[in-house]
């Protein structure tokens, strides 16, 4: 039976999913996004250039590959149009190989303002949303009010839009502090909808299952990270979709037994952007050094990312939730300059040590139990095999493998496409 392989983030996002999807894409016929939306920022680097994708799957730069935006995604046609322009500028042909599920939900301009209003209302407790309208759009989806890509083809589309907009404008009256230029943004939105209709819409669930039957190889690309999952993340400091493997089933329309390899990505350390708990955060010089060396600034919002050591109880949790079959570790090169590095192996909670995540990390002060490792203090430039890595790096990796009980099959040593060690 043909199966779908999955690549997803095991931490709080920005693990380097885009790079790894782009690297592996050549082994596949289809790359599909199954959740999230323009809150994602996936960076690819090759040929001396950098590309950032938000809605478009990271297989788009591999010629002839089909890229599918699944029903679980929320799509802002304006952001999407901007991404298409950027592809054109890079001479990437996409028209016959970028498909969109009719059941994907549309982000309206008013969704973005509702996002801003919700955050303003929360004050200090704000989530640190990317303000792309993600939360309000998924709320309309589950609230059964949403507009979907396929609705664009309906003769009553404008009326459906007006009804939803009217509801939003009523809600926005509660938040007079949020101001916006409705006419300009609405015009731009309808212009971008026109362009959307030039692409091919599909019934993703049939498309994907037919492709599997026909023996096509499919890779599902996650957005965000497992600790931002709506059910299992650090609620309420999470995103509004299921970012874990289960999301592939609902976000593309495939049955669980169709899931094949699950490649979980983790940085060699840990980052988070926005508010919420982060047990191994280093709010000190070391954290600053990680941020600087790792160039930890958001690909979507430009915000500085919070940095800390790798957190093994956290990773064991997300490995369990996702059924990870292999790990890809990225950004190991960032640790090159550290004389010592560390990993949290357990949490200390009420005087006891545990490796279980508490119900509410937001209101439970867990203290990470750190294990120190010797740094390798040299460049990894020339290492193209695992065996060529410095001894100290191998010791770090094999110790983590023992804790995580999953093989680390890929090690990324730089942002460029070719900087990857595959074991
Ligand atoms: P994504 O959202 O998971 O796709 O990750 P982002 O693109 O938001 O953030 C990852 C950042 O790290 C990007 O700037 C990548 O170019 C960069 N990156 C990816 N892998 C590596 C690596 O192995 N080493 C270094 N130094 N940078 C990397
Ligand atoms: P990629 O796919 C890192 C974070 C936001 C905020 C919370 C909710 O690039 O890894 P939202 O806009 O979804 O309402 O924000 O989730 N967040 C991300 N952090 N990487 C992402 O995506 C993220 N997408 C959302 O910073 O804390
Ligand atoms: Mg990102």
Overview of the molecule:
The protein is built from eleven helices and 20 strands. The mean pLDDT is 97. 30% of the residues lie in helices and 21% in strands. It is α/β, with parallel strands linked by helices. It has helices spanning 17-24, 77-89, 109-122, 134-142, 157-172, 182-196, 204-213, 246-252, 285-293, 312-322, 391-404; strands at residues 4-9, 30-33, 42-46, 49-53, 66-69, 74-75, 98-101, 105-106, 200-202, 218-221, 259-267, 270-272, 306-308, 310-311, 326-330, 340-349, 352-354, 367-374, 408-412, 420-422. It is globular and about 65 Å long. Strands 9-7-5-2-10-1-11-15-19-20 form a ten-stranded mixed sheet, sandwiched between helices. Strands 14, 16, 17 and 18 form a four-stranded mixed sheet that branches. Residues 9, 13-19, 41-43, 45, 299, 330-331, 333-334, 412-415 line the site of guanosine-5'-diphosphate (GDP).
List the helices and strands and how they pair.
Layout: E1 4-9, H1 17-24, E2 30-33, E3 42-46, E4 49-53, E5 66-69, E6 74-75, H2 77-89, E7 98-101, E8 105-106, H3 109-122, H4 134-142, H5 157-172, H6 182-196, E9 200-202, H7 204-213, E10 218-221, H8 246-252, E11 259-267, E12 270-272, H9 285-293, E13 306-308, E14 310-311, H10 312-322, E15 326-330, E16 340-349, E17 352-354, E18 367-374, H11 391-404, E19 408-412, E20 420-422
Parallel strand pairs: 1-10, 1-11, 2-5, 2-10, 5-7, 6-8, 7-9, 11-15, 14-16, 15-19
Antiparallel strand pairs: 3-4, 12-13, 16-17, 16-18, 19-20
Helix pairs in contact: 2-6, 3-4, 3-5
The chain binds guanosine-5'-diphosphate, 6-O-phosphoryl inosine monophosphate (IMO) and magnesium ion (MG).
